[in-house]
Amino acid sequence: MKLYLLLMMLVCCTACVEDRIIYERMPVQDGGDQPNAQTGHTDNGNTLNDVSDPPISAQADPASTTSTQSPTATPTPNAPSDPTPHPMDPQPSMSASCELELQWQTGFGDEDGHAFRGIPTPGGTYVLPGSNLIVSRDISGHAPTAHRVSDGEKMFEFEVQAFAGTFDHNWHQRVHITTSRQSTHLVLKPVLDAPELWRVELPLGAYNLWTRFTPDASKVVLLGCEEGHGFARTYLAATGELDREVILGDRCLDHLFGNGILSALTHDGEVMVIAEHNPFAPQASDASITRIDFGAGEVSQVPFQDGASGALLSMDLSSTSNRLVAVNSTGEIYQWSFPDMTPLQSLGQAGQLRINPHTYMPSTESPIRFSPDGALLAHIDLDGNIVVVDANTQRVRYRLDLTEFERDDITLNGNIGSEVVDLVFTDDGQSLVARLAFGLVAYRCADSIDPEGRDNLSVLLDVPGDLHVGEPAELTATHLDASHFHGHAFYINGALLTTPTTGRHAQWTPTQTGVYEVTVQLIDGVNTGLATRFVHVMP
Does the reported pTM lie above 0.85? Predict the structure, then answer.
C-alpha cells in the first residue's frame, strides 16, 4: 500500500512539472539559435542571457515579478527580452461562434485626445508588431499616439521625427527621404536612437518620391519622377545597393505627404501594383492600376471588369488567399488574383464617406481590409456603418452601428465623429479596430483571451550618481536585446517626470537636496521593464 501511494505521488508531481513546462519557452528547432553551454553564444553570434544572472539594473520590482524558472538544476536560457516576430501562419479569424462586441473607445470627449482633433487621414492606423499596441496618427503635426489594444489606454506618444518615413514589417527599421537645397537622399536607419545604416544620394531634380519596404524587408522600393518620366527602383535593404530599375514612361504618380499611392507587393518584392489615391477629386481621376514586374522589367496596365473610371479609394491584399481588392469612387468593390492580376467577380457595393468637409482638403473615403487569414473582409456599408463579411460568399457576419459616436457639435473640420477613416484587424484575428474621425473604437470576440505580458524587458538607466541643486542632468534609457518601439516613462521618486514617449532621453533639474529614486519604465502595451538608480543631490 505504501509503495502504491509513493508511486501515485510521483505520478502527480510529474504531471505538475509537465503542466508547468507547457508554458516555458519552446525548444529551438533544428537550424535555430542553439546556445553554447560554456559561452552562452549561439552559432550565428547572438547572445542569450542566463535567467540566473540578469543585469541588476534591469530587474523588475520584486513585488510584481513572478518566477518562471524551469524546475531543473540546469540553467535555462532566458527568452530574449524583446522577442522578434517571425513569419508564421496567420491566426484564424473570428469564428462562427464569436459574439463581436464593443470593447472600448477612446478620444471621444477626452480633453487629452488632441491626437484625434486634427485632420484624420487614411493609412495612419497600425498594429505595432510584437506588442499589444495600436498606433494612430493624422497629418496635422500632432504626435502619433500608441494605445493598448486590450483597453485603448494611451501608453505613450511618438517623437514626430522618429515616425518619419515607412517601417519594415517588424518595425525594426525605417526608410525615409531627406531633401535640402543641395541634395536628396534615401536613408535607412534603425527605429531606435542609432546611426543610420546607409544613405543613397538621389538625382536632385527627382520629384514625387515615395518609398516603402518589401513585405520581407529585404528590399526598399522607391518610386519617383525625373524630367516628366516615372521610375521604380529597388535597393537592397542590407547595403543600399541598387538592385533593379524599371522605367514607367510618362506615368508620374502624384501623392500628398506620401498618402496618395496605393500599393501591393509580393513577399520578395518581385511584382508590385500601384495606383493613385486621389480622394480629393475622385470622379475626375484615373482608375488605372499599374503592374510592375521587376524581374522581367515589364510594366502593364491592369484591366477592370467593366472599364471603370474614377479614383480608387482604398486597396488591400490578402497574402494568404492571394487576392487583391479595391474600392472605386463609384463604391464598387473589385478584386483580382495576385500577383498575375486576373480580374475576378466584383464583390458588390461599399459605402463612401465625406471627411474633413470644412477644410482645404475634403476627401471621399471608403476603407477596406482583409482579416489576417483572408477569411473576412471589413468595409463600410451604404449607411456608413461597418460590416464584416465572409470574403468568399459575401455573407454579412457582423454589422456595427456607429450612430452612437456621432456628435451634435460639428468641429471646425466639419466631421460629425463617426466617419470611418481606417479599419485594422489585430494579429490574432479576434479584434477589429476602427479609426473614426474623433477617436478609436475596438470590437472583440467576447470569449477572446487577452495576452499576458512579462515584466522583465531589459533596460539600463544612465544618470549621474551625484548632482547639485539647479544642475541639469540627462536621463538615458539603454535597451538590451531590444529593437522594437517602446514607450519610456521616467519617474522621480515615483512621480512621472514628463509625458511618456518613444524618446530614450529625458531632462531633469533637481531643485532640492536629498537622495532621489530615478526610474525608467519600458512599456509596449503588454510587457514592461524597470531600471532604477539613486541620485545624491548636494547644495
Answer: no
